[in-house]
Specification:
Blueprint lengths: L1 H5 L14 E2 L5 E2 L2 H12 L4 E3 L3 E3 L2 E3 L3 E4 L6 E4 L8 H16 L10
Antiparallel strand pairs: 1-2, 3-6, 4-5, 6-7
Length: about 110
């Protein structure tokens, strides 16, 4: 699993200037909340990637965290959705959740 976590992957190229919070492995994340999530995953030895590209059809999206179950290898996606007081953000979040569901990724099953 560590090989998967540490191998190169396509990362979110958008707004690199927002990557300002140090994470557990000295990489940078966009918010303090994401830094805390990163630390919990790291401390519990759950393999993860931050903002790894996920192609739903031809369109890439970048879940906050892509996780691998340490024993089964099953993949899960964790979206933080930290700005739900912003209506534009809410619209984007709902669109993203709908896109997941249209591709057999469901809240409470393989989407956190």
């Amino acid at each position: 699993m560590l090989e998967w976590q540490n191998s190169p992957y396509e990362k979110n190229p958008n707004h690199p200037e927002h990557l300002i919070h140090k994470a557990s492995n000295r990489s940078l994340v966009r918010s303090k909340s994401e830094a805390m999530i990163d630390m919990v995953l790291y401390s519990h030895r759950i393999p993860f990637r931050y903002e790894c590209a996920l192609y739903l059809g031809n369109h890439p999206i970048f879940p906050d965290f892509t996780l691998r179950h340490p024993k089964t290898g099953e993949t899960f996606y964790w979206e933080h959705f930290g700005m739900m007081d912003d209506m534009n953000y809410v619209d984007t979040a709902l669109f993203k959740i709908n896109s997941y569901e249209m591709n057999d990724i469901y809240l409470g099953i393989n989407l956190l």
